[in-house]
Design a protein that fits this description.
This protein has 2 domains: 139 residues, P-loop containing nucleotide triphosphate hydrolases (Rossmann fold), CATH 3.40.50.300; 89 residues, Helicase, Ruva Protein, domain 3 (Orthogonal Bundle), CATH 1.10.8. 51% of the residues lie in helices and 12% in strands. The protein has 14 helices and 11 strands. The strands form 4 sheets. The protein has a 5-stranded parallel sheet. A two-stranded antiparallel ribbon has the order 3-4. It has a two-stranded antiparallel sheet with strand order 6-9. Helix 1 packs parallel to helix 2, helix 10 crosses helix 11 and helix 10 runs parallel beside helix 12. It starts with 17 loop residues before the first helix and ends with a helix.
């Protein structure tokens, strides 16, 4: 990867979206976390951030799954042109393409058919694509990719069972701070000018920062294998999950994985309370009873106080 392509702002130059960036980085370091779901209103640069991250981390734009995708498009099927010539030739689906490039991106995942969402989540979590359909019965194929979905909650939500399958969830809102909004505005306007200038020093600087950032992420991905989760940290994850009355045990498992990723990114060899404190919100927010009852997905100041109280008591 030698630079940023025309049409995409380098990841290192994106202003704001710190929670989304962090979630994407945690899942890159520990893919077993299980992907990221981004919930937020339109016009908040969700897609831009995901695409910029994919280019920085994988050297490719993400494979994007359209809302009207069919089973054949997702899982693969027979090449129609080959069939018309009397030959059987399999056409790889989007899941296999995502395995080759590193990321599968589903915009407006809440508008996708639940049947397809289930299939995609199964493949993302197991790393195995098994196709058993009419005229196709194949052995499993190993497929590994980072799954990222975005959705606008104003257009409808996902069933709790599907929400739970995403490792982390990041609620996104527009920036309210005037200075931050001004910086976003000036950055976008500058990029629109600079991208028309061949060899722009500003964009080149962003691409060079991206390359360094990728090295940092790759080093953390390697180092996380040796990061310890001490007994106190495991207990803390369990206490937090119980304290927020989440269903099942996926929240504390994801929390522990994300905490180890936080430690690796910080250059530590063991998880500390701050790692768990950071990992908890995106692991919990969509698994609480409030989300299951359709009361919206948001992490409030009261939630933060409740989390900090559990950590301080432990």
């Amino acid at each position: 990867m030698t630079g940023s392509p025309v049409g995409i702002l380098p990841y290192s130059l994106i202003v704001g979206q710190e929670q989304l960036k962090r979630a994407l980085e945690l899942v890159f370091v520990v893919p077993a976390i299980g992907g990221v779901l981004v919930s937020g209103e339109r016009g908040t640069a969700k897609s831009t951030t995901v695409r910029s991250f994919s280019w920085m981390a994988y050297g490719h734009f993400p494979v994007t799954l359209p809302i009207n995708a069919t089973d054949d498009r997702v899982l693969g099927g027979w090449n129609i042109d080959a069939l018309m010539r009397g030959r059987t030739e399999r056409e790889p689906g989007l899941l296999e393409r995502a395995g080759e490039t590193g990321m599968l991106y589903i915009d407006e995942v809440n508008l996708l058919d639940d049947h397809l969402v289930n299939i995609i989540l199964d493949v993302a979590s197991t790393g195995m694509l098994v196709v058993q359909r009419e005229y196709i019965d194949e052995p499993g194929r190993q497929v590994s990719f980072t799954l990222v979905g975005t959705m606008n909650p104003e257009e409808g939500g996902l069933r709790p069972q599907l929400l739970d399958r995403f490792g982390l969830l990041v609620p996104i809102t527009a920036e309210l701070d005037v200075a931050q909004r001004k910086e976003i505005l000036t950055t976008v306007l500058r990029y629109e000018e600079e991208r028309l200038r061949p060899g722009s020093a500003w964009i080149t600087m962003g691409a060079e920062r991206d390359a360094e950032h990728r090295k940092w992420l790759l080093a953390a991905r390697e180092a996380v294998r040796d990061v310890l989760l001490p007994p106190f940290a495991a207990t803390l994850c369990a206490k937090i999950a119980a304290g927020f009355s989440v269903a099942g045990h996926r929240s504390e498992i994801v929390m522990a994985m994300a905490a180890r990723a936080c430690a690796a990114l910080a250059g530590r060899t063991s998880v500390v309370p701050q790692d768990v404190l950071e990992a908890a919100p995106p692991a919990l927010v969509h698994r609480r009873p409030e989300a299951a009852y359709g009361e919206g997905i948001a992490w409030t100041a009261k939630d933060r106080e409740r989390l900090e109280a559990i950590v301080e008591e432990s």
